[in-house]
Amino acid sequence: MKKILLFTFLISALISCKNNETEVGKEVDNEADKSIQQQIAEAHGLNNFEEVEEIQFTFNVRVEDSIRTSRAWTWKPQTDEIRLTEGDISRTYTKTDSITEDHKDIDQKFINDSYWLLFPYQMVWSDAEISEEKTGTAPISKQEMNYLEVAYKDKGGYTPGDTYVVYYEDDLLLKEWIYKSADGNREMPTTWEDFEDFQGLKIAKSHKSPDGSFELFFSDIEVK
Predict the structure, then answer these.
(1) pLDDT per residue as tens, the chain (224 positions)
(2) Distances (CA, A) of 4 to 7, 98, 107
(3) Among 20, 48, 163, 200, which is most exposed with the fewest C-beta within 10 angstroms?
(4) Considering the entire predicted model, what is its pTM?
């Protein structure tokens, strides 16, 4: 009787182990099936974004010792209601597929500022063309990193034809990038640094030029 019980236990254990191996294998396969841009977006907290009801942030640009731009935003992603405050003036609009002429200027600012805030997500959300993963020297740190080229179509949008080269390491968090204008006359490398976790969203609060004379940074970030 004891031998029968022992044999039954061993068979059950083997089946259990086999099932566990199968589940682990499925998880590995699922991860391998994800595109690199999906993996990068998820490393920055994309899977937590669907729970977000409201994001507040202030977009700032410093050149040398002078603040040149400061815009405060409140965005409700589930309804796409957006409020901009510049100085003493506040304006509100709802983002739709067709933006009225009265709202195009504020929409252009929002797209610019929110892309800087959440660009890793835009690599999945937008219709950009993503290159294959490559390895090269990052422009600022001069370290060897993985990189992707993220190119936008030369028609449509506010800045058609722009390209971004994003550099990242094994943790898949962006470390640096290069902005390239469509006409090829402008390139701007900046860092991605000072990451902080806001309700599961990993946001780089600071982006600096190689010499530090330019900094684009975010303040007053709140995620609800």
Answers:
(1) 434 433 333 334 433 444 444 444 444 446 668 999 999 999 999 999 999 999 999 999 999 999 999 999 999 999 999 999 999 999 999 988 778 888 999 999 999 999 999 999 999 999 899 999 999 999 999 999 999 999 997 765 666 789 999 999 999 999 999 999 888 789 999 999 999 999 999 999 999 999 999 999 999 999 99
(2) 5, 73, 73
(3) 20
(4) 0.83
Q: Locate the domains of the chain by residue range.
A: 34-223
CATH assignment, 34-223: 2.50.20
